[in-house]
């Protein structure tokens, strides 16, 4: 039996045949067998994701099957912290602290969203941030190495080393 294959992703589509709902970690993929959400008739569509390189599938992306059909990606809401600063400069300083810890973060003009972590929460509160727990889809910024989302997720830790990282490759 031929398993339909996805080799490209689009944002330009009208009517998907199905959807697939994944958390942020499960949306960072290159090659794997996947199964759509249940259709109205109770069936699913199994397919092979086979992209040229690993990438973060974003909420609203369309996975293009080799027969032209589209499966729409839905991001499942996750347990996040929404961080606000007292002003834009303060938010920028908080973003620097978060980035210095290599944490995946979704950045808007007014907030930063992160996975819930009590150590990071305490650090941010100590820096004067406002931190609120929310449930929302998580679409973090892409990584600096290759433009795709970094596949690794560090837990909170202290850094006693410089951040030149030429020896690290994040692909």
Task: Give the structure's gist in a few sentences.
With 171 residues, the chain is mostly beta strands. Helices cover 12% and strands 35% of the residues. The chain folds into two domains: 5-75, Sandwich (HSP40/DNAj peptide-binding domain), CATH 2.60.260.20; 77-171, UreE, C-terminal domain (Alpha-Beta Plaits).
Number of domains: 2
Helical proportion, percent range: 10-25%
CATH topology of the largest domain: Alpha-Beta Plaits
Order of helices and strands: EEEEEEEHEEHE
What would you call the structural class?
mainly beta
- Straight-line N-to-C gap: 32 Å
> So what's the overall shape?
elongated
Overall pLDDT metric: 85
Helix count, DSSP H or I runs of 4 or more residues = 2
Highest-level CATH class of the largest domain: Alpha Beta
Strand content: 35-45%
Q: What is the rounded Rg?
A: 18 Å
CATH architecture of the largest domain: 2-Layer Sandwich
Strand order of the largest sheet: 2-6-5-1-4-3
- Count of extended strands: 10
CATH superfamily of the largest domain: UreE, C-terminal domain
Low-confidence stretches: 145-171
For the biggest sheet, the summary is: 6 strands, mixed
InterPro entries: UreE (IPR012406), UreE_C_dom (IPR007864), UreE_N (IPR004029), UreE_N_sf (IPR036118)
Function: Involved in urease metallocenter assembly. Binds nickel. Probably functions as a nickel donor during metallocenter assembly.
Keywords: Chaperone, Cytoplasm, Nickel
Protein name: Urease accessory protein UreE
